[in-house]
Design brief:
Helices cover about 20% and strands about 40% of the residues. The protein has helices at about 15-25, 65-75, and strands at about 5-10, 25-30, 35-40, 45-50, 60-65, 80-85, 90-95, 100-110. The strands form two sheets. The chain has a four-stranded mixed sheet, with helices on one face. Strands 5-8-7-6 form a four-stranded mixed sheet, covered by helices on one side. The protein contains two helices and eight strands, in the order βαββββαβββ. The N and C termini lie far apart (about 30 Å). It has a single domain (about 5-110), classed as 2,3-Dihydroxybiphenyl 1,2-Dioxygenase, domain 1.
Amino acid sequence: MKIDYVELPAPDLAAMKAFYGQAFGWSFKDYGENYADILGAGMSAGLNPHAVASREGALVILYSDDLEAAETAVTGAGAEIVARHDFPGGRRIHFVDPCGNELAIWTKADA
């Protein structure tokens, strides 16, 4: 078994598309007005406007070779940084998107 798809709760679908498009350059394929696939994220993913956003569920962690540039991108698009961690082998930040989902971005220690 493998993880095949990640779905982010997106009660405000337009805000989520604007945020992730600006922050990461992702694009979207709309399925009517009630769902959007995320394109360009490195794996299959989607935005579900019928799901409730939470900071308590599974943590989606993105990778960047340049953590500072990634932080600038997410804060520039309107995210709030809620945590920073250093750990053996790397560093990561946690951010909250416009709908209240918490995600993280990490980088290797030598990056």
